[in-house]
Design a protein that fits this description.
2 helices, about 140 residues, elongated, six-stranded mixed beta sheet
């Protein structure tokens, strides 16, 4: 399987490749997790969680359209300060995604990320991404 990048080949799956690209492009204070893991943001350490959402047949034979959900959450919950931190965090994540040629992000929607049932949740954005993957060469 390879990501359709106009000839550039990769050996990992798209979810992990995207997590790696985000980890490389975001500040070290941001924890990037390449799995649907229940992790809480900690003061000074925002999180980005990358998880596989859906796989559909691609537009051409031997391809798949892989949907990935990226959750960008901040540790702040105080109104105002949380909004400011979340907007900055989202801008940083989108800037990295814009630099990754094989990523097509569709939308970023405000959400609440609750890593557990006991958690009241953290301000977040859910970013929908689609990647074309070739299954045959």
């Amino acid at each position: 399987m390879e990501i359709d990048t106009g000839g550039e080949e990769f050996t990992s799956g798209p979810r992990q490749l995207l997590a790696d690209a985000l980890a490389d492009g975001l500040p070290e204070s941001v924890k990037v997790v390449g799995a649907a893991e229940n992790i809480s943001p900690e003061p000074g350490h925002d999180v980005v969680i990358v998880s596989l959402d859906e796989v559909k047949p691609g537009a051409y034979s031997g391809s798949r359209l892989v949907s990935i959900n990226v959750i960008a959450a901040v540790a702040k919950t105080t109104p105002g300060a949380a909004d400011d931190a979340l907007e900055e965090h989202l801008a940083n994540v989108l800037a990295v995604l814009d630099e990754v040629a094989w990523v097509d992000w569709r939308s970023a929607k405000r959400s609440l990320y609750a890593p557990s049932e006991e958690s009241s949740g953290f301000p977040a954005f859910s970013i929908e991404i689609e990647i074309n993957v070739r299954t045959e060469t």
